[in-house]
Specification:
8 strands, TIM Barrel, 15% strand, globular, alpha/beta, 8-stranded parallel barrel, 45% helix
Length: 282
């Protein structure tokens, strides 16, 4: 496995200057991977970022930022088109950065909540399947895999469970469309973390982790031994990325409801989390 950390732990928005500043630090901490959120792909010089990341001996994964106007199932066609255009740009940025992973809730704007009848949900699922079928073909031609992540009920009303995402993935039926699993969200929605990982099974291509309070892995209520056993059962051997946020960044803190420090410092969260994960999973 490769152990990584998201730049969102420290700051936002992510720029080339941020990558230049934090890549050496993340490597010095002992991580294998840096996760780069793609808030504005147009603003990044991705080949330059790739050079910095590789010079520091790190691999890279990328994360979609599904903000306002980035929505593949919005009732407004113009918003759908904006979402498609953003994902296409994010795929190109991911490839240019040397990554094979674009993960995130690649279906709807984070925080958009709406009620659906069973029939309406089916229509939305069919629409998403069609959108992802086209986008995953495009991603595959760039050597990128789209990893669709379920979110908790407070951040979306659409895809909350691993089983829901798996159903979409199986309908898309493209090798470049897989499941991204975030332990924090699963800890709210799933009955059992190990069973949810097993449901993802061979479709699991990217794993993000934090504790149940979004703090240091291993310091809260999650049954991490159960997680480790399930990952071993399905043969998962890819990236394990700490993704959480700092209350010091007002925009991210509000979006993720981070109202207090989750550790002594972001550096402490990163280093102690890495130590725990390496002991658990290697």
């Amino acid at each position: 496995m490769k152990f990584g950390v998201s730049l969102w732990l420290w700051t936002s928005p992510v720029t080339n200057k941020i990558i230049e500043e934090y890549a050496p630090k993340i490597a010095e901490m002992g991580f294998d991977t840096i996760e780069v959120p793609l808030e504005d792909p147009d603003s990044l010089d991705c080949p330059a970022a790739r050079k910095v990341i590789e010079e520091n001996g790190l691999s890279v994964t990328c994360c979609a930022a599904m903000g306002a106007g980035r929505d593949l199932v919005h009732p407004d066609q113009s918003v759908q088109n904006q979402g498609i255009e953003y994902i296409r740009k994010a795929i190109q940025a991911t490839a240019d950065m040397g990554s094979d992973v674009l993960a995130g809730p690649i279906y709807a704007e984070v925080g958009r909540l709406w009620s659906m009848t069973v029939e309406e949900r089916k229509i939305q699922e069919d629409l998403l399947t069609a959108q992802l079928s086209k986008l995953s073909k495009h991603a595959g031609s760039h050597g990128v895999t789209i990893c669709v992540e379920p979110l908790n009920r407070f951040e979306t009303s659409f895809l909350n469970l691993t089983s829901q995402v798996k159903s979409i993935i199986e309908q898309v039926n493209e090798p470049s469309c897989k499941i991204g699993f975030d332990l924090f969200h699963a800890g709210i929605e799933e009955k059992n973390l190990g069973d949810a990982i097993r449901i993802a099974g061979e479709h699991l291509f990217h794993l993000q982790v934090a504790e149940n309070d979004r703090g240091i892995p291993g310091t809260g209520q999650f049954n991490w031994k159960e997680v480790a056993v399930a990952l071993k059962d399905i043969g998962y051997n890819r990236h394990v990325v700490i993704e959480t946020f700092s209350p010091g960044n007002e925009i991210l803190a509000k979006a993720a409801a981070i109202w207090r420090p989750l550790a002594e410092s972001p550096d402490t969260l990163a280093t102690e989390g890495l130590h725990f994960l390496r002991n658990l999973l290697t």
